[in-house]
Amino acid sequence: MKRGGMKLKVTAAVINGVNEPYVLEELTLGELRYDEVLVKIVATGMCHSDEALRVGDAQYPLPAVLGHEGAGIIVEVGNAVKDLQVGDQVVLSYNFCGTCPSCRTGHPSSCTSWAPLNMVGSRLDGSAIFTKEDGTPVANFFMQSSFATHTIVHQNNVVKVDSDADLRLIGPLGCGFLTGAGTVVNGLKPQTGESIAVFGTGAVGLGALMTAKIEGCSPIVAVDIHDSRLEIARELGATHTINVRTEDLAARMVEITGGRGVNFSIDTTGVSAVMKASIDVLSQGGVTAPVAITKQNLELNTALDLALANRKIAGVLMGDAVPQLAIPKLIEYHKEGRFSFDKLVKFYKFEEINEASADSNSGATIKPILIVDETYRQGQPLPI
User: Does the global pTM surpass 0.90?
Assistant: First the structure.
């Protein structure tokens, strides 16, 4: 769809102030740049990172269009874009420069420009992707902003997927499940038979748990405060579960590991006491990865909690994954029945975004997915 210089009107869910609800508004998309792609959004996951920005746990320019787990169809490409074309089905993930040492060595989430490319709300030159009718710029997120009917993204955000992929389902592979899976494979790198504990059984935690099973970890311990979540964790591969509201964590860990502790742990909760517990359960030489966006701090004694036991804390952003490689692999695992993230999602209409957000916050829904284009049918061409 060539716009012929005309600016496209889109519907987007806008946050106008801290802790305010999403409001569907008509916005204007800016001009497509030479290295960018215009995508018609079919569906998008909702992530706790979106909620952190909405409620002010992390500062961000407002008004803004959030969303960073989008899936859709390319409707226009910039004149310098390679390997992507109109009609391609895509998942959207994070942006990266592609030229710094980290990008060149396969670690784009450590890109030296990662923060300005994803977290400032505009292009590097300060120009806006979205504007209101009165010309007010509206910040974007992750150079993606998938809470919209159409969006402009950088070509590095884009992961092409097979034409038979279900775009209603796979958007969350762009962040939440990617983070969980990548933290295991790239951040912790367990060997077959090594043990792991996952604190928090939301989308990120369960993505990590399923991947730990694929990697041959044992035992795999899921820790949460909800029996219903722990039942799902068992179904997806946990060998043991601990409800810390009704069970003693330390005693159960001694029972499960014979007093040795686990080789690895992941905290997805961002709660201070839980982050500390994820260290306490480690074996000699164990490694923990705290991956939640949180305002809470971690207090520890570096000698007693870390050095004397040779324990380590690993910072892992976006699973240290290359989305263009990792997301197709996760789709393949799903087809094989080894990464059953479809069991964790609930679909909502786009206009139900505030209900979806509330259900995610309450724990009623593990991974909400907004259906932005209800005309989409898997495997059928979509008018663009």
Answer: yes
